[in-house]
Structures are given as C-alpha cells and as structure tokens.
Amino acid sequence: MVFSKTKSKEDKILNFPPFGKLNLQNDGREWVGVVSGIVPSNLVEISIETEVNDEYLDRKIVKLEDFIQKLLKQLDELFDHVHAQFSGSKWDSTPSQLKQMYFLTAVSIKADCATFWVVLEPEIAVDSIFNHLLRFTVIGDEITWFNFAE
Question: Which of 8, 19, 95, 144 is most buried by a 10 A CB count?
Fold first, then answer.
C-alpha cells in the first residue's frame, strides 16, 4: 500500500490512490477519510492528527502506512489480547469467535507521530460480548491502553 499525497487547490484534500481521500477538518488539525482497500470486508476510517501546516505530514503518512501494513499482519494479536482479558470469565470467547464479533473500523496516527489508535467495531449480524467499540492505543509494538477489562 503506497499513499501518494496530492492536495487539491484548497489544500483541504489529500488523495491516497487507490484507497480514497482524506479531508482536512475545519480546525485544520486532522485529516480524516473513510477508505477502501485496507481490509476486504469493510471501509476503514483513517485519520492523521497534525499541527496547523504540519511540516511532518509526509513522514506521518509513511509511518501510518507502515503501521497499517504491520497491523494487518498482526491483527490476531489484538484478538488474542481481548481473549486474554476475558479468559475464564463469563465473557470468555476464543480469538476465532472474537474475529467474527468485531472488525477493524478505524486507525489513527496522533500528532506525536508515535502513538496510534486502533478501533474494532462490533459486527451487527453477530452476537458479541459487548456492544461497543473496542479501542486500543499502540506505541511501538505495545498496547499501552484499551477501553475494556473484566
């Protein structure tokens, strides 16, 4: 996956062929778009948090691209993490069951260029242990925060 950055005349659109476009939010501090081609089964919201006129935008794009590639190869680790949190509880589910319950819905790189947020959304057609978004903060290769626990 290679993001090639092109901006519109208004500098409010980043075009990332073949996935889609990110739009600069009104506050000028975040590029956001819902793109295809990251996972085959659904669209994924991508966001890049920036400072106004961020000179490091190109670097963030490359880091986000690298992170997404790595995440797709290691998505099972997120499901293993969820499984480990509920193992032995009334919400115990296998990683395989969790993969049916949740799907990747959002990835964001934060302004520090080192912190990523990853969000899994519950599948509507499948009973899930929780009916809310599972959120993870990842720095380096480590999950440093998540919004669920037994």
Answer: 19
